[in-house]
């Protein structure tokens, strides 16, 4: 037992203390958080815009077509573009998208973290868009009609009435998407970004002991996800105050 | 403005088709200031559709809705036989509106008359001329639908209070965002209105904490807060428990007493008798009979109405 403990502390010292290797993990963790945070922002922005375009088209294309004018054609083209985006992004693996971004589209860029942020953001946007669209469609149409009948135009009705209610509906699914995203960023190592996973792997390569660094990495991911789930749970409870 | 300055809403040849289902078939009527119009009719007769066409929640297939001399409905892209009829009214209203206008304006209405006389429907070319003319008139007289809706309040069968907002926010949202009222002013007014319907203790509750009758009273206050010229009631008591119907009807009666213009689709015959200044019977998408409550209920002429009244009275 004593030997085992001694062994453990030696391993710990070797992997984290020597050469300040814990700093690698910290740095990697920082990168992971940065990538996840900004990718989430991009994802939600893209998601809201696409969800609004698609649900607007689904709802209003008939009446716009009848009324004539360019409105219908503009919306039609936008809807087609969004559809194409969703098909391509959801139909290809995120690793491939990341590699394409890094080696083809942003070939001349040195900022690989930015490339990762953009790739994961665009990828996440496709999924978030579908989550939001489902949310918008599940808000009772009566709420929308009530907004319109007061004199709010389409966009204001969306902004003041539908979207706030949609966020409440989609919060659990959105939380899930964030959890998926933070773990998905672990493939950023593919394009040479030192994220948390890559940092753990680098330590493993240096010390030739896999157990400590990889388990540490796993625990950090787990801790973040558990903490985040708790926070969202709290937020959900607060939002639920309006429906007892 | 239009034929009568007292006319608030002028409905002209209103048609609404849902696919093959012709719900409204050329409904024409006028709603004057201060009137309480109760709309009766069997289910599926087009009562609610008619009401929802007034503020364009349903877009009419053909026909026009005018609010205070301004055209609410979007320009009609089709030509249709029955439009000849409504275009004549259209022209008449236009003439009177513009009365003593410049030569150019005069010319415009002459052209319309000419087109109508030639029976525009039989000729595609003339139809085009008519359409472009109508487009021009539309441009001159149209009112933005969102502005129109600020003046047309609506109360729904299912209340449709905003679930995520408190009662106070439900009422103040539109005045603050659309009328640019300050929060203090809007809240002060909301509280006054809530006081009037006996709900001042509910300001910070959420809709889900209220009973149906309370929700409907809040919904009425919400539309009142925009100071509308007219309020449309779409079966306001149909979703309520019988014991809550009274409290909502009382609020509506109070409103009527204060001179609010109201169009009420309902099955409450008692309300119609007591409060209405005019009762309208809609069947098959047109008005079959209308009149003051006395003559309407005591001496119905239309056989369909007789049949209807014998069942509900």
Summary keywords:
heterodimer; A: 244 residues; mainly alpha; MetI-like fold; 9 helices; 84% helix; B: 313 residues; alpha/beta; six-stranded mixed sheet; four-stranded antiparallel sheet; 12 helices; 10 strands; 46% helix; 20% strand; globular
CATH architecture of chain A: Orthogonal Bundle
By secondary-structure content and strand pairing, the structural class of chain A works out as mainly alpha
Distance between the first and last residues' Cα of chain B: 40 Å
Low-confidence stretches of chain B: 77-83, 119-124
What is the makeup of the main sheet of chain A?
Answer: none
CATH topology of chain A: MetI-like fold
Global Rg of chain B? 21 Å
Mean of pLDDT of chain A: 90
The H-level CATH homologous superfamily of chain A, spelled out, is: MetI-like
Global outline of chain A:
elongated
Q: What does the secondary structure layout of this molecule look like, with pairings?
A:
The complex is a heterodimer of chains A (244) and B (313).
Chain A: H1 2-17, H2 22-67, H3 71-91, H4 94-105, H5 112-138, H6 141-150, H7 154-184, H8 196-207, H9 211-239
Helix pairs in contact in A: 2-3, 2-5, 2-7, 2-8, 3-5, 4-5, 5-7, 6-7, 7-9, 8-9
Chain B: E1 7-18, E2 21-32, E3 36-40, H1 47-54, E4 62-67, E5 70-71, H2 81-98, H3 103-117, H4 124-141, H5 145-151, E6 152-155, H6 167-178, H7 183-196, H8 212-224, E7 230-234, H9 242-257, E8 261-265, H10 269-275, E9 278-283, E10 286-291, H11 293-298, H12 303-312
Description:
The complex is a heterodimer of chains A (about 240) and B (about 325). Chain A is an all-alpha fold and about 240 residues long. Chain A has helices spanning about 1-15, 20-65, 70-90, 95-105, 110-140, 140-150, 155-185, 195-205, 210-240. The longest helix of chain A has about 45 residues, at about 20-65. Chain B is α/β, with parallel strands linked by helices and about 325 residues long. In chain B, strands 6-7-8-3-9-10 form a six-stranded mixed β-sheet, with helices on both faces. In chain B, a hairpin with a 2-residue loop joins strand 4 (about 60-65) and strand 5.
